[in-house]
Amino acid sequence: MSGSHRFIRQAPRKRGPGLLSAVAVLAVAVAGCASFELSEGATLFGDQTGCGGHRAFGPAAEANAASLTSLPLTPFGRPELGWAIYAPAIAREAHTACAADTRGFAYALARWQFSHGLSPHGAVDPDTFAAMKDAWQARRPFVALRKAGICPESPTRLADLTPDESRLDKVVQLRPRALKALRRMVAAARREVPEIAADPQQLTVFSGYRDPAEDAARCAAELNCAGLVRAECSSHRTGLAVDLVLGAAPGFTDDSSDDANRLYQSRTPAYRWLVANARRFGFINYVFEPWHWEWTGERP
């Protein structure tokens, strides 16, 4: 096993689902120090077919194929069925390009479970998803401040985006360094993905800095200050958060949190490219909203 990817065996906190093959669990436990290759050369995470993998992970792959659209979850305050919306982010976390219903995906997920003290059965279950969510949220400095009871002050310096970068009906602003990072990221996406380059609306910003007083008035008017859609203390007040155009499902707006729209967006080339590459530019996704990204290069 290479020195760059060591795994320290920890006692599993939970047993895997009974329907999964004990052989698959044992295969990973015995292979605890086997070599583990990351799919760093892959363009997209969770998009690759033909990931056969070891047959011991067949039951896990079958379980994932079924639970992808049926697993009951309440990760962000409202019930959801399945984890298909989050499949690209889960694949990114597990360092695999393999599609969610393959044995290769199950193997990579089992290694992630093993390294996080979970039973390494290779199937997405509520405990695994909760651990994934903790990892995603821990990368958001704004979340850490909110947990500490801090609502950040607004920035003193903001820069205007051009209408081509944002929208024609209003001025969109970000902190200057966040805007520079965003421009680098969008330019890279357009260079690397023809579908993004072909549509000038892709990855334009429809919301950046939002005045806290206006945000508070809006959520109060909608009676949703503590809800998923509006927040009394929004990350947009920091000047580091951006809502990006990814495309929307027919009949929905770019920021619709309807599951059908979020699923549509999670399958777009723009979102999948962001999942694979945005960290290079300092951007982290709030995974409940595929369009919402936060720059981590400055303290909120």
Description:
This protein is of the alpha+beta class. The chain has 2 domains: 22-138, no CATH class; 155-295, Muramoyl-pentapeptide Carboxypeptidase, domain 2, CATH 3.30.1380. Helices cover 36% and strands 7% of the residues. It is built from 11 helices and 8 strands. The chain has helices at residues 22-30, 58-67, 87-93, 103-115, 126-138, 141-147, 176-192, 194-198, 212-221, 259-266, 269-277; strands at 72-73, 80-81, 159-160, 173-174, 205-207, 241-244, 283-285, 292-295. The strands form 3 sheets. Strands 5-6-8-7 form a 4-stranded antiparallel β-sheet, with helices on one face. It has a two-stranded antiparallel ribbon with strand order 1-2. A two-stranded antiparallel sheet has the order 3-4. Strand 1 (72-73) and strand 2 (80-81) form a beta hairpin. Helix 2 packs across helix 4. The longest helix has 17 residues, at 176-192. The protein is globular. The two termini are 39 Å apart.
- Give the total of beta strands: 8
Strand content: 5-15%
Element order, helices and strands? Answer: HHEEHHHHEEHHEHEHHEE
Give the uncertain stretches in residue-range form.
Answer: 1-20, 22-42
Kindly report the spatial arrangement of strands forming the biggest sheet: 5-6-8-7
Give keywords.
four-stranded antiparallel sheet; disordered N terminus; two-stranded antiparallel sheet; Muramoyl-pentapeptide Carboxypeptidase, domain 2; globular; single chain; 300 residues; 11 helices; alpha+beta; 8 strands
